[in-house]
Amino acid sequence: MKKYDFDTLANRQIDNARKWDQSIVKAKFPNVRKDFIPLWIADMDFQAAPEIRTALSEMSINGAYGYTYPTERWYQSVIDWYKKRHNVVIKKEWITLGYGTVPNMHILVQSFLDANDSILLNTPIYGPFAYAAEHNNRQVITVPLLKHNNRYEIDWVNVERNMKEKHPKATFFCSPHNPSGRIWSKSEIIKMAELCQKYHVLFVSDEVHSEHIIEGTFTSSLEMDSEYMDNLVMFTSPNKAFNLGGLKLSYSIIPNETIRNQFRKQYTKNSVTSPNVPGQIAMTTAYEECDEWLDQCATYIKDNLEITKTYIDKYFEGWKMMEMDSSYLPWIDVSKAKLDMHEIAKIMAEDAGVVVGIGDDYVSDADDFLRLNLGTSHAVIEEAMSRMAKTWQKVIANEMENV
Ligand SMILES: Cc1ncc(COP(=O)(O)O)c(C=O)c1O
């Protein structure tokens, strides 16, 4: 078996990574240490799979970057991926190529919601879910998730009450959940689908975090019985799994023809036609050839998680990492910490030189949370955790000024 190298990181200056950019980080933390380690924006520092790099090099050297179309091979790669990774059979006509999951959410809102219509979100949730409604002058209904045994649970009574009383047009369901990494069980997914059907709410499932599994088994909404398929829109992309976010490619799977046509109409209105050339090549290669890279990447991240957990348990009084089943983004409850999340993020940037994500970036109910990004080498995670631990020891010992 080929062994992939996750210790050698890409040079993030070459792709102008936002996460590493001095001016972008300084806008958030003006006094950040110059040698900061960014554990915030959710992309990974690993080099993409060598198979993808080879395919992109061939394209690059060939020198033609003109107009293209979604190829048969691309469709087949999606169909095969779902069969081999999720044991789900999907039909070619259900698939629509898109230009990012977040743009797809905006397009969905434009297609299905009239002025004053709303979407329902279980919060906290990834910020752009709300922007899709807000940027289009539509409303957001939030239903806070419940915390039980260090994991989020859906507040079913509250979800049903809101659907019944406020009549949202769609629910944007994050599966697995970002920010906590929680995998929803098949029965939870079906329960949500049932409620959506009962109250005529379109069930929109975002499954971009489904490929990095740490614990348990992911169930796709596409595994539900056919009775639920007529009310389902599934959005995903290879971007989180294979670190291809900058190539701006994604897709939707919509089994119901009427819903699919209504969604596609908005594409036509905006004349969205030719896909991104490197995006299509990278994605096809990822789905055809890079299973093993993905599995090894998930194992590597699991080790980063162990390193992080060990540090947090030992040195970070008042911090508690929520149980996570997927992704590379631990969600840390700091409600019992000595400082609030903004103060912690600030001293970590300034004293430790580690940039962390703050709860503010998520929709509601995240006032006491920080998020880390473990998509980097063991050496970087060791260095970041060790720096943060030293800073936190100073906080606990009241040795920090300006706090
Ligand atoms: C839940 C969720 N959906 C969508 C995205 C973005 O996906 P894409 O790169 O396909 O636009 C992210 C990125 O962090 C995310 O966390």
Automatic annotation (TrEMBL):
Q: Which Pfam families match?
A: Aminotran_1_2
Could you read off the lineage of the organism from its UniProt record?
A: Bacteria, Bacillati, Bacillota, Bacilli, Lactobacillales
Ordered alphabetically, the record's keywords are: Aminotransferase, Lyase, Pyridoxal phosphate, Transferase
Q: What is the top-level taxon of the source organism?
A: Bacteria
State what protein this is by name.
cysteine-S-conjugate beta-lyase
Stated EC number for the protein is 4.4.1.13
Entry keyword Nucleotidyltransferase: no
Family, according to the entry, reads as follows: Belongs to the class-II pyridoxal-phosphate-dependent aminotransferase family. MalY/PatB cystathionine beta-lyase subfamily.
> GO molecular function of the protein, one example?
transaminase activity
InterPro entries, from UniProt? Aminotransferase_I/II_large, Class-II_PLP-Dep_Aminotrans, PyrdxlP-dep_Trfase, PyrdxlP-dep_Trfase_major, PyrdxlP-dep_Trfase_small
Transmembrane feature ranges:
none
Its top-level enzyme class, in one word, is: lyase
Necessary cofactors: pyridoxal 5'-phosphate
Coiled-coil positions are none
Aminotransferase class I/classII large domain: residues covered: 40-387
UniProt keyword annotation of Iron present = no
